[in-house]
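ARCHIVE CARD
SHELF: 3
SLOT: left
DATA:
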Amino acid sequence: MNPPPDTAVAPPGSKAGFWVTLLAALGCFVIFLVVLFLAYIPQRRMAPEVDLAKIPPEEQWKYTPAGRQAHLDEMRAREKAAATTYAWIDKDKGVVQLPIDRAVVLTLQELNAGRKP
């Protein structure tokens, strides 16, 4: 159904249609920025200062950037060792820790052995 001739509709490909679309896109962006400002920015707060003398020594790493970085480095070293070395998990039950690449090879061999040709 065609619109009545007295309706002000810009023909497709006209400059007026381009400017209306551009203005609508910019308006949406401005509305997004206003919502972001009103909802998020006032909620941001600075971390309170902490007196490390009142914190137990085993918890102090949480409150300094250097402590968090050292804790992260230790955790990554433990994870890397667990992913790349052999170890006994439970000797009585025969549970071992394998490097990931070796575990993948063994799993693929086990799956392929169960296939029917």
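SLOT: right
DATA:
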Amino acid sequence: MKTWFTVSEGAEYAGVSRDTIYTACERREVRHARISGRRSIRLKPEWIDAWLERHAREAIVARENARGGSDHGADRANA
């Protein structure tokens, strides 16, 4: 596997669009390196993996919160 990915390669690796990678870099959600210019970005596979893992955990938490989370809320309502 390559040590450094271009944005296109990183997007393909992650299964997302190039725009998603650019946006994540802009928002500083994914670690990246800028090479000799504003749009010349390189990413390491492990940085993409970490970003995907964070998003997976956030999605799980958001889904649990949307469902009401744990039963603790019911306990407070009955107290």
